[in-house]
Specification:
alpha/beta, Rossmann fold, Dihydrodipicolinate Reductase, domain 2, 6-stranded parallel sheet, 5-stranded mixed sheet, 28% strand
Length: 267
Amino acid sequence: MLHITMIGCGAIGVAVLELLEHDRQLQVDAVIASPGSEALVAERLARLRRPPQVLTMLPTDARPDLLLECAGHRAIEQHVLPALERGIPCLVVSVGALSRAGLVERLEQAAARGDTRIELLPGAIGGIDALSAAKVGGLDTVEYTGRKPAQAWKDTPAEQVCALDSLSEATVIFQGSAREAARLYPKNANVAATLSLAELGLDHTRVTLVADPHCQENVHQVKAFGTFGGFEMSLHGKPLQANPKTSALTVYSVVRALGNHAHAISI
């Protein structure tokens, strides 16, 4: 059995725990919550058949098989970096955090010192394997367009671009690099950051973000061209019911990654 500690227990974390309930090869022993939220998180998890222990920090003597980050960007520095130093392998959902200058290098160095590794999960996007393979032969251009319902952009800089509540047509709210997209839209731009890290890099992947009042799904479109040829991909993901900023596929991506670490066959 694979023993897991999860950082964060919001919409993604709860959905992951529910899907793992009947997998006998995967056990989430503990959840790391923000200080002061322990009682709320414990109440949220009480309905589970195997509710994990709720902590605010990873104990110094703890050695989980995997540390899974589902908490957001601040958790990378607070929890993931120290765990890597201690030799604990980590899986990261909040890939957009890696747009911060120097953080990728710090993670690499921490993993090297701990003789372990960090795995960046694809989350809401597919085709990462194809992009990574194409990078080996040489990529020329990669363009990403993310289209979400207008309300999915609430509490973001999009509110300074247009009136989301009264939007009547699809509106471009951002055009620029993946690094800038991830910085300005950290809760919405994990896909852009993931794509860029798989291919041309944060500063060379072009990103367009769109608020669409007629859209009921999170739509991800990727165009890539290089020596391998070219491909275009369009993925229509339903938003997670508990959080419209997140695609339900993100949850399934986490469960798949955990299964690949525990099960006899991985794909």
